[in-house]
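Pasting two entries for a bug report.
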Amino acid sequence: MTPKYEEDFYGWVTGNIAFLKQKRFDEMDIEHLIEELEDMGNNKKHALISRLAQLIFHLLKWQYQPDFRGRSWEGSIKMQRMELEELLQDSPSLKSKVTEGFSVAYKKAQLIIQKETPIDLKLMPQICPYTFEQCLDDEFYPD
């Protein structure tokens, strides 16, 4: 017998995997399985926005604090670009979420700027000054 979802998540997962493999679909906990699959999709979307926010944050620092530019900042930008590209390669359909997530990512980047730097947010535009394509472009570093 498979443990209940609320009592033993790992046991519930392994039990439902076994049911899937044995094609015992009528014994599966479909309601919770749907919830978990939706959560998995949402987690990927949140990862996209989070990575994009980090990348925009580093690009903003690069632009607004030119005296502090260095290899570590360049490395951070490159790393976030790589992570984003990997995420999009693994889940290409996430590109359809970029438009709605881009403004959210910019707002999050501004919150990080506010928290971690002395940059005045009033100096920044209301909408992200970069395009998604620029963010992913290995040659793009804003002046």
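Entry 2 (this is the one that rendered wrong in the viewer):
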Amino acid sequence: MVRLYTEDLQISYDDRLIVKGISVQIPDQKVTAIIGANGCGKSTFLKAVTRLIPHQAGKVVLDGGNIAKQNTKKLAQKMAILPQTQEAASGLTVGELVSYGRFPYQNAMGRLTTHDTEVIDWALKVTNTSEYKYRQVDALSGGQRQRVWIAMALAQETDIIFLDEPTTYLDMAHQLEVLELLQKLNIEQQRTIVMVLHDLNQAARFADFIVAMKDGEIIRAGICEEVIQPDILRQVFRIDAEIGIDPRTGKPLCITYDLHKGDNRK
């Protein structure tokens, strides 16, 4: 059974069509990466699937129901979203920020229960951020902050987690740290992870399923061996890529590339 899919999804900003009739099934309990050039509609698609922005046509279906008609709190108990630019957490401690993940479960009084506290501590432990619980979020490094935001998403106790470019502005070690954490959550807890990534080799290494987009449409969706191919990358990124095999993972590896100077439609 596929829990999450879209049918002919269309999204517009003003009179400009950004996402053009996308139909795709998101594999359950797998890691999905969405790739494509800047401005192709990746983030817009992600926001519409998580109901952060409305769509103009088509539908997003989760557990058999159109998300546009689902209760907001109930939906927030099924999916969490970590946007590309997080809202300011100025003055908040790490523990306070992570506690916001419990909002979908709180009653009108808004008080944390014993279970809420246990989940918050668990999320901090899983992301290796327990030692920062009483520190200001502002005082943390980029990699530490990103793990704290992921802890907040985990505290939401959802089966599906969406992340928009979770490695942006991080150095190589912190990028790897974040991606390995997400992979661990998928393998050990069967969380469905859907994320926008810019790095092709990171997508190939960590994703089970890749969606390649161009100009608001899907060029190819499938396992990494089907998507990380020279002809697909030529269409999506306008590059002529040399693809090899990663000796450590056995996954496709973009060894080098040049700008494609021919007809980009081929």
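Dev reply: Rendering is fixed now. As a check, the viewer should reflect this: The chain has a mean pLDDT of 93.
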